[in-house]
Amino acid sequence: MKKTLIKLIPKGFLLFCFLPGIVIGQSKYKSFAEFGTTIHSGDNTPLWQVSNQHGLSSIDNNAYLRGGTFYSDSCSNLMFKTGLDLAVAKGFTSTFVVQQAYVDINYRCFGLSIGSKELNSELLNEQLSSGGLTWSGNARPIPQIKVGILDYVRIAPWAQVKAEMSYGKWTDNNYQKEHVGTNYWYTKNILYHHKSFFFRLGKTTSPWQIDLGMSLDAQFGGNTVNHPYIHEQDLGNKIKDYFKILFPIKQSETKYYEGNLMGSEHLKLTFKQSDFHLSAYLENYYDDFSGMGKKNGFDGLWGIEYKSKNKQAINGLVLEYYQTTNQSGPLHGVDESIVKKTGGADDYYNHDVYPGWVHWGMTMANPLIASPIYNKDGNMTFKYNRVKAVHIGWNGDILNDLSYRAKLTFNRTWGTPFKPIPEILENFSTFAECTYCPQKLKGWNFTISGAFDTGNIYGDNLGMQLKIRKFFK
C-alpha cells in the first residue's frame, strides 16, 4: 500500500490540495482536501462503496487525492458562484479527474450554469435512496450549459415552480475506445440534452406539500464506430440537430425520433410536522409514450421517507421498491396490423445506436441495474435491465461528533426483453459507514465504511473504504 500511495501523488498536487486553505482567508471562499482509498476482496468493490458517488469511485482497489476550491458572492439581485474540484487516482478509469469546474450566475429567479457540476436526484434523499431513474449521481458529471429557473420560485401563495434546460457533451471517448470488445461498437462525441419542470404545491403554513415534475433527457449527435448496421458515421452534429432534439418530432413511419430519448415523471407527497417530515413518492421511468402513460404497470421507484429535524439514533429512513420488469409489455412492432401495438419491450436505457445511458462505464441512472463497467466482454450496453429490488437505508447520530449510515438491498434480474437469461440472478448488498467529526479538530472529517455483496450480479465482494477530508474557510 505504501508503494501505491507514493506512486499516486504527482509532484505539486499536494500543494494544490492545501494551498487554498493557506492563501485564502476570506469567508466567501471555501476549500477542501481529501484522501480516499478502497480495498476489497472478491470480484469487485462492493456495490454501495462504488455507487452514487458521482463517478469518483472504482470497482477495483483504488486510492485518490482530491482538492477543491469554491467561491461565492452576491450584489443586490445578482449571485455568482464558481468551483474547481480535481483529483488524481490509482485504480480509477482515468488517472486525472476534473470532477467539477463550473460557473453559476443567478439574477433574481433566472440562472445560468456552465461546466461540470455534481448533481443529485430530484426529490430523493441522495444519502439513503438507491437513486433516481434518469439521474442518480452515480456517474461522473457531464459538462453542460444550463439555463432556467434553477431553484423554486413562488408564483402563488400555494404554488412554487422551477424549470431548466441544458446541452452538454460526454467526455469518455478514450474510455470507450479502450474498453470496447472486438465484436461491439461504441459512439464517440455524444451530445447531451436535458429539460425539466417541477411544481411544488402547498402553503407555507400547511402541513401538506405535493411535488410534481417531469424530466426529459437525451443522447444525440456523435459518431458511431464499428456499428454493424449503420454505415453513415455522423449521427447529427449540426446546429439544426440541437433544435430537433429540443422539439422531438416523428420523422416518418419508418424513421422515428432522432436520438436516445428517455425521462422520468415525479410525484411526492409530504406531511410536515415541527420535528419530522414523512413522505411517499413515485418516480416513473419512460422510454416512449407507453411508459409516459403508465402502461408499464408497477415499473418505477416507489418509496417512503422519514426525516427528523433532531439529532437522534435514527434521523432518516428510506424504504424503496424498484421494478423495471414490465417495460410496457413483452411485444413491440411497427406494423399495427400484426402486433396491434407500437409500445412494449422498451429495453430500458439501451438503444440501437448509442451504447447505453452510461458515462465512463457507470450508469447515470439507478445503479441497481448493473452498469456496463461490470461487463467483462467489452459490451458497452446493459445486460440486466429487467430487475425487481427492495432497498432500505437509514442514518443517525451515535454521539455529538459521531454519525452513521447503513443500507441493505436485495435485487433480482431477468436479463433484457430481447435477451432474457435462462436463470434468474440474485444479489444481496449491505453497507455500514461511520463518520467522525471531532470538535477539537475543526474542519476534519474521518469516514470509514465496510460493505459486502453476495450473489451473481456484482459477485461475492467484501470491502473497506476510508476517507479523510479537511475543510478550509
TrEMBL record:
Name under which the protein is recorded: Capsule assembly protein Wzi
Source superkingdom: Bacteria
InterPro entries: Wzi_sf
